[in-house]
Design goal:
By secondary structure, the chain is mainly beta. The protein is built from three helices and eight strands. Strand 5 and strand 6 form a beta hairpin. The chain starts with 16 loop residues before the first strand and ends in an 11-residue tail after the last helix.
């Protein structure tokens, strides 16, 4: 059995560093997220903002599928299942109190508060908070144990919105955190709700290699 069952420690991925970036829905999506020659991450276009520090749990990506089951009198189990919906969300807690995090948490447009630090801020909670479409980029990077080069897992919601927020506790023992859930929606231009990448110099160094049963 051992000769058939191979394992590879290089394929065990951990998000040693995670980051969340957000932009207005009208902001361009990068043409190339990674350099085609080196695999290095490309700089993001103007208008993309980091949400800054997030909670120690990083980002949790959930998928919720709803199935339509077809059952028959002759079978105890379904004879056919069809996927009615396949929804993807991302959950994280913002730890920085900034114009960007406030706008996301309160459902405001970025131009209502601006994005510069140090300016006085004043806002009113909307009577009916809107669902504001934005663009979202979620990055998680690991490093090759051999060379230390990055392996990056990227997810981009071309169209996504904050659909749920948690409480914001303020105390002397813990930093104020803004719990946020973002839901991905189908984008008519890209024809999908989520774009995915797995790249980076550390990933490309695996090209041509085969799993070592002893690794």
């Amino acid at each position: 059995m051992a000769s058939l069952y191979t394992v590879n420690k290089d394929l065990v991925f951990k998000g040693l560093f995670t980051a969340v970036f957000v932009a207005s829905y009208t902001t361009p999506v990068p043409d190339q997220l990674f350099d085609p020659d080196t695999g290095e991450l490309e700089p993001l276009p103007e208008g993309w903002y980091p949400v800054g520090y997030t909670g120690e749990d990083g980002t949790t990506h959930d998928r919720d599928r709803d199935l339509a089951e077809t059952k028959a009198a002759q079978e105890a189990t379904s004879v056919r299942d069809d996927i009615n919906s396949d929804t993807q969300t991302a959950k994280f807690t913002m730890l920085e109190t900034s114009p960007v995090s406030i706008a996301l948490y309160e459902g405001l447009q970025f131009d209502e508060l601006g994005t510069d630090l140090g300016k006085p801020l004043r806002w009113a909670k909307p009577a009916v908070p809107p669902t504001v479409d934005r663009r979202w980029l979620f990055l998680a990077s690991d490093r090759s144990k051999t060379t230390g080069q990055e392996r990056v897992r990227a997810r981009l919601f071309p169209r996504g919105a904050v659909t749920d927020v948690g409480g914001a506790q303020e105390s002397r023992s813990d930093a104020t955190g803004y719990e946020t859930t973002v839901k991905a929606y189908m984008d008519p231009v890209f024809g999908t709700d989520v774009l995915n990448w797995l790249d980076g110099p550390g990933w490309r160094e695996l090209a041509g290699g085969r799993p070592d049963p002893s690794s």
